[in-house]
Amino acid sequence: MTRPTYLPDNFTFAILLTVILASVLPCSGQFAEVAHGVASVAIGLLFFLHGAKLPREAIVAGATHWRLHVLVLCSTFLLFPLLGWMIKPLALKLVTPELYTGLLFLCVLPSTVQSSIALVAVARGNVPAAICSASASNLIGIFLTPLLVGLLVVHGASAGASLESVVPIIMQLLLPFTLGQLLRPRIGAWVDKRKATLRLVDQGSILLVVYTAFSAAVIEGLWDRLPMTALAGLVVVNLLLLGLALSISTLVSRRMGFNREDEITLVFCASKKSLASGLPMAKVLFASQSVGMIVLPLMLFHQIQLMVCAVLAQRYARRADVLLPETAHR
């Protein structure tokens, strides 16, 4: 029996169940440390497998796709702040001024790394380009985000860029990927024959990120900090931001003549905001203020972007399944 088209797919159901589980049974204490450790291992394995799977020629092509990388960076650090400024009249009617400050802070953050690349892989996009774009966004964001916060969010704010923020990116992402590349001559054929395993790691890493991130948000009091009206208004504004980013990046990609794989990479890398980078930066940049309310828009946006983009990734993947047989007969 086939699944009705109006019902979500299994992976989307898994995302929703993970959110419910994190709301009812959020991980905390030692269990949270174990969950974060498992998520880190899964993400490292994900990048190792992608490194072993991808031909060297594809990686060189991804790294040199400068038009795509420029568009991702422009969307992350120019388009998002512009959108945050444009929706100010509407946002201030739906949320408090402190929450709007949090929304502006969200807009100047770098893109996510792990979830962006995992979603690009699920959607069958240009993974090498996604690795380059997402990693570059985070590295540049370490320096650019504090500057933008000082200019647009809190005048006069300052924060030093720390190498401690760079090391985790190198150790968790670039190092496993490079190791996989080095071992590709020995294990590449074995990995190519186990695409189902790679897909399981892709989706499993996303579920772990959702569970650990949403658990942290729940423990921080996500459902207790605000009245339901303000929370609903925050959801509306976050959905508006994400919808505009997704729509504009899709339109620009097609106007630029990108193929489907590059479109997927631009859409997912250009529409994300990093919770992992945002929380530490907020503690430094807003040390004299109440950080809780400022990062609440980011925590909520992070969950929304994962769930919405997980559905979108599955739709892209299904289109690829339809196109493959047609291509094979050409």
TrEMBL record:
<feature type="transmembrane region" description="Helical">
    <location>
        <begin position="204"/>
        <end position="223"/>
    </location>
</feature>
<dbReference type="InterPro" id="IPR038770">
    <property type="entry name" value="Na+/solute_symporter_sf"/>
</dbReference>
<keyword id="KW-0472">Membrane</keyword>
<feature type="transmembrane region" description="Helical">
    <location>
        <begin position="66"/>
        <end position="87"/>
    </location>
</feature>
<keyword id="KW-1133">Transmembrane helix</keyword>
<feature type="transmembrane region" description="Helical">
    <location>
        <begin position="36"/>
        <end position="54"/>
    </location>
</feature>
<feature type="transmembrane region" description="Helical">
    <location>
        <begin position="129"/>
        <end position="154"/>
    </location>
</feature>
<feature type="transmembrane region" description="Helical">
    <location>
        <begin position="99"/>
        <end position="122"/>
    </location>
</feature>
<dbReference type="InterPro" id="IPR016833">
    <property type="entry name" value="Put_Na-Bile_cotransptr"/>
</dbReference>
<protein>
    <submittedName>
        <fullName>Solute carrier family 10 (Sodium/bile acid cotransporter), member 7</fullName>
    </submittedName>
</protein>
<feature type="transmembrane region" description="Helical">
    <location>
        <begin position="229"/>
        <end position="252"/>
    </location>
</feature>
<feature type="transmembrane region" description="Helical">
    <location>
        <begin position="166"/>
        <end position="183"/>
    </location>
</feature>
<dbReference type="Pfam" id="PF13593">
    <property type="entry name" value="SBF_like"/>
</dbReference>
<keyword id="KW-0812">Transmembrane</keyword>
